[in-house]
Design brief:
540 residues; 4-stranded antiparallel sheet; alpha/beta; binds calcium ion; 17 helices; 11-stranded mixed sheet
């Protein structure tokens, strides 16, 4: 067992031993009581995250979905638009847009015509978020705590014992397709079409990992050295656009051979999605489509059509403008196919901006960036749009964890959580009523913020408590020059409403909840005693 997980389990064991209430919870789930008086959450099953209960809202959401199905005669479609590394402050409606040199009219329209979430949380990096939203489980539980990189020796296929959203949707009649970036394993058994998707059309890796093999200006020591390039390729690094079908053929459609090829990747992917939507809409079956953009993850290269099209003219900003335009094309394809009123669209980013690559990076108004446990690393734009089902003009600051997409999409597809296995812990919460009702309230009381195998922080109400912190040792290098540190005597507790940048803890000076929030974190840690995390070898 890796030391970090061992440490975590030891902590959970100590906490469980020192707190009879916590130990009792694991043994007698029916008698479960909240860890502190702060909590109103209800645990309905020992392996499900406790959630706030609004029975009237749950019933109203069910009735709304049933009425839609009566009207359309079929189950709803689900479309996720996942932008890579886009910052909270990038879209115009979140305070960015034209004001920071890259207008985003299509994203802004989606938000205005739907529900704009301002306290939605991702994991701090790509792979953890991408696996968490498909499993409803924290990366520390599945073992997918960081990207599986070319050359990594993993001990066990992380997907082997996992139940993915598309795999659960299939028996409910859904066709599931992933277009774009995967980044959650490229070996046989780990590819999208091995783990539940019916079809995959995209890339296994992030833009930078692909373009580093062709961009001689940025990576001359690699690109101009054939021996090194051959060694990189020998690790299994792939520059291919792959088309794979579940149980069928997997083939390379084309290869990225220049930065110009890389620049056009999103255009090619969007064209595939637009065509696929027309086909899927005619198939008579409901569909789940995850369109995962390659942009705006570094290294961004402006495509022919969008070079200089942003106010800023910088490559990152041109990439934001391109992604926004492609979002518009995909939404227009749903309109043209006549399925817009039967399709939930959810647009978000998989983590905060990667300030390490600035100025090829997004913007966040918060402290920290991608890879950190500060708000800048994990708080992301998130927009839910569903014509006729989500009223225009809604905005909410109530909590949403992107893992909630797993449970919510199951619910929208009419799949009961009772169908999920009982031998593992699910961290996602069904937020269907929050999303669909005009007065919908979030059922999520807390968001736990993990970085790899470390429980760093927790958000509850407008408070955020850190038991560990991410420290940078050079300006904005949250990935390449940072450390994790333990806090001192007291956890660092911030009030995000008066201090959104997490600069000055209110601690025990100006807050009544320090001990209660610490107790809530301990109760969370104790779930790992009852349901031990998997170690797939990435934590070594
Ligand atoms: Ca990312």
């Amino acid at each position: 067992m890796n030391p970090a997980i061992h440490c975590l389990l030891a902590t959970a064991a100590i906490l469980a031993a020192s707190s009879p209430a916590v130990a009792q919870k694991a043994d007698k789930p029916a008698a479960w009581t909240p860890a502190s008086t702060m909590s109103s959450a209800v645990r309905t099953s020992p392996n499900m995250e406790p959630a706030l209960s609004f029975p009237g809202q749950a019933e109203a959401a069910r009735a709304k979905l049933a009425e839609l199905q009566r009207r359309t005669g079929r189950k709803p479609n689900i479309v996720w638009l996942l932008v890579d590394d886009m910052g909270f402050g990038d879209p115009g409606i979140y305070g960015g847009g034209a004001a920071i040199g890259a207008a985003t009219p299509n994203m802004d329209r989606l938000a205005r015509e739907g529900l704009m979430l301002t306290s939605a949380y991702a994991q701090p990096t790509c792979t953890p978020t991408r696996s968490a939203i498909l499993t409803g489980r924290l990366p520390v539980r599945t073992g997918l705590t960081r990207p599986i990189l070319a050359g990594d020796k993993i001990k066990v296929n992380p997907w082997q014992a996992e139940v993915s959203l598309p795999a659960v949707l299939r028996p409910a009649g859904y066709t599931s397709i992933l277009v774009g970036k995967w980044h959650v394993g490229e070996g046989v058994g780990m590819r999208p079409h091995d783990v539940g998707f019916d079809e995959f059309y995209g890339y296994y890796e992030a833009q930078k990992e692909i373009s580093q093999g062709v961009d001689e200006r940025r990576y001359p020591d690699l690109v101009l050295n054939p021996d090194r390039l051959a060694r990189l390729r020998a690790t299994g690094s792939s520059e291919s656009l792959v088309h794979g079908v579940r149980g069928g053929e997997t083939r390379d459609v084309s290869k990225i051979e220049s930065i110009e090829d890389m620049a056009e990747a999103d255009r090619v992917l969007a064209e595939f999605t637009v065509q696929k939507i027309a086909t899927l809409a005619q198939s008579g079956k409901p569909f789940f489509l995850e369109h995962a953009f390659m942009k705006v993850h570094a290294d961004n290269h402006a495509s022919k059509a969008f070079k200089g099209k942003s106010g800023s003219k910088f490559a990152y900003k041109d990439a934001v403008v391109e992604v926004d335009a492609l979002v518009g094309e995909i939404v227009a394809a749903l309109d043209a196919a006549g399925v817009r009123d039967n399709t939930l669209i959810f647009l978000t980013s998989d983590n905060g901006p990667q300030l390490d690559s600035w100025p090829d990076s997004g913007y966040t108004p918060f402290r920290g960036a991608k890879a950190s446990a500060w708000e800048g690393g994990v708080r992301v734009p998130a927009i839910a749009n569903w014509k006729g089902m989500i009223s225009p003009g809604r905005q909410s600051d109530e909590l949403f964890d992107l893992m909630d997409l797993f449970n919510s999409c199951l619910s929208i597809a009419g799949v009961s959580e009772a169908a999920l296995p009982k031998d593992r812990y699910f961290d996602g919460i069904d937020q269907t009523s929050f999303l669909l009702l005009d007065d919908g309230k979030s059922r999520r009381e807390k968001v736990y913020i993990w970085a790899e195998t470390d429980l760093m922080a927790m958000r509850m109400w407008e408070y955020k408590i850190h038991t560990k912190i991410t420290e940078t040792h050079a300006q904005w290098l949250d990935i390449d020059m940072s450390t994790k540190a333990n806090v001192g005597l007291a956890p660092w507790l911030f009030n995000l409403y008066i201090d959104p940048k997490e600069q000055y803890p209110v601690g025990h000076r100006q807050n009544a909840w320090l001990a209660s929030m610490a107790a809530e974190m301990k109760a969370h840690a104790a779930t790992f005693k009852a349901f031990p995390p998997k170690d797939i070898g990435l934590a070594q």
